[in-house]
Structure formats: C-alpha cells, structure tokens
Amino acid sequence: MTQHKENNKEDQSLVYKVLHGNMEAFETIIKNTERLVTQIVFKMVQHADDRKDLMQDIYLNVFQKLSSFRFQARLSTWIAQIAYNACLNYATKKKLVLLNTWHTENDNEDETLNKALDKFNLFYGETEKLLFQKELAKILEDEINNLAPIHKTLIILYHYEEISYEEISQITALPIGTVKSYLFRARKTLRDNLLLRYKKDSL
Amino acid sequence: MIVEHLTEKEIQQYAIDRPGCEISTVEHLETCEYCNARVASYQLMFTAFSELSAPVNEFDLSSMVMSRIKQKKKSFLPDDLFVYSLVLVALVFTGVVLYSFRYVFLQLFRNLSYTVVYSAAATIFTILLLQLIENYKKYQRKTDALDIV
Ligand SMILES: [Zn+2]
Description:
The structure holds 2 protein chains of 2 kinds.
Chain A: H1 2-19, H2 23-44, H3 48-65, H4 75-94, H5 111-123, H6 127-146, H7 149-159, H8 165-172, H9 176-202
Helix pairs in contact in A: 1-2, 2-3, 2-4, 2-7, 3-4, 4-8, 5-9, 6-9, 7-9
Chain B: H1 8-16, H2 23-31, H3 33-49, H4 61-100, H5 102-110, H6 114-146
Helix pairs in contact in B: 1-3
Transmembrane segments (chain B): 81-101, 113-133
Protein name (chain B): Zinc-finger domain-containing protein
Organism (chain B): Chitinophaga tropicalis
C-alpha cells in the first residue's frame, strides 16, 4: 500500500513536470516503462520493423494524452494499456489472429504425459534434472513463442513481470476471470509441452 | 481404493500460492507422490521464468521519440504563427478601411444617439477581447505541453 502511494507520488511529479514543459521528465517516463512496453509489443507483434514504429507511436500517444491521465491506475499500467491497445489495433489492421482455440478441454493428464511425469518424478532433485533445468529456460522461451499472442503476453506479464491479475485485467480490459482462465490454459499447455520435451530428451 | 487426485486448477494454485489453498489440498499433497510430482513440474517451470531474458530494443527508443516530438513542435508552431499573422493583417486592414472611410461612417452614425453607438461598440469590443483571451489561453496550454527546455 505504501509502495503504491510512493509510486503515485513519483508518477504525479513526473506528469506535472512534463505538462509544464520539462522534457527530461518525459525521457524518465520512457526509461521507466520501456521494458514493460517492449515486452507487450514483442509478444503481440512478430514483425521487427513494425515494432519499432509502433513503440514510437505508443509514446507519442502517451505524450499527447498525458494531460488526460487521472492517476486512477499507476502510470506504468496506463502506459501498458495504451501499448496493448496499439497492438490490438495493429493486429486488427493486419488481420492477425491473437487468440487460438485450445486443442483439448480435458484437464486430466493423458498417458504420455503421465509417463513423462513418472520420469520427471524419478529424477526430481537429481543431476539430470539440474542439467535439464539449464536448458529449461531456452525450451520455455521456445514454447512461450508457440502460444497465441494474447496468451504469450499474459504469461509474461504475470510470471516474468510479476504483475497482478487485477493490473493485467486493467491493461488488457479483460475481466479478471478471463485473465485467470487464459493463464490457467497457457500454464498447462506450457507445462505439458515442457514435460513432453523432457521425456524425449531424457530417453 | 479409488484415489481422487487433485484437479489441475488445485495443482496450479498450490504451485503459485500455497497459503491460499484449501486444507484438503495440502493434506492430499502430504501423502500423494503423483500430485507432488505434478506440483513440482509447475514449480520447476516457474523457476525457469526468472532465467528468461527481457527483450531489448536495438534502437534508442527515447531519443527517437524525443526527436519526433521536436519535429511535431516545429510543424505545429509555423501553422499557428500563420493563423496569428492572418489575424494581424485583418486587423490592420479593418483599421485602414475605418480610417479611410471615417467621414462616411460618421455620417452613418450621426442620426443615431451616442448611447446606442457607444453601447454597440462596447459590446463588440468585449466579445472580441474575450475571444482573444480564450485563444491566448488555448495557445499557452499547447505550447506548455510542447515546450522543449
Ligand atoms: Zn494425488
């Protein structure tokens, strides 16, 4: 709570400075939020050149709209919201698919998965698992990239940027229940694929 | 005996937020090796997230944005200067016309009482002044937002 108040104070002072002509303050805002905006744009947009233009447009938009920011959310959340919307508009223009239908509605482990899990259990805490762990980040990155753009974004915002369900809901304008259920599915898909690759690698 | 294992949701919740779980979940996990392996598989995945690297832009975003804002400022100011010089030209022109044809106008107003003429002039002057102040305020706000220090 105190942390939130501190953030709010810093946000207010930065916004005030920018609105009174201090452009260094706007550079600070960019530097503070660039990582989050980059994460969203990288997960939502495949094409590197388009990302470059889009990110600039996002911050020009932030600059123009700054006087309408009312501090109902954190500045970073508000900027992330603008970034996410810009990506949605981009996808609509390019007619890109941002969500896919999940292949399986079955929550139970199937047999292949169970075998992988058994193997995993066997090695739990052993050298093999440690070796696997080193490669795991690389495999995880691959598997995340195989997810649909919106699931990718949610997974990274929650598990890497450590943003709460509530804030993700604000950024994406999705109901919290939807955010949770997308995340549930995305985690399960990722975990299943990791296990299957683990099984394959350890054979 | 048929064992009811935990649902995938319960497994995920335990792996993410242990204190927020039902007691029955915690109790089940005290004895079930299979569900423990399922939890462990998620936990292992979550630790791998911290080893991912954040994407980095291969360009200097902030200087690119700042130069585009400066460009906007440049293209914005001449436009406004143009509008204001037009207003100035119009004012000078009106002044010249009024001065050149002053006898005609005086003739025109001679029949009217001074009170009517003065109150009409005062009204027009007040409206113009208010408009000018309003425009000046708008202009100030725009330049404030675009003022590069
Ligand atoms: Zn069980």
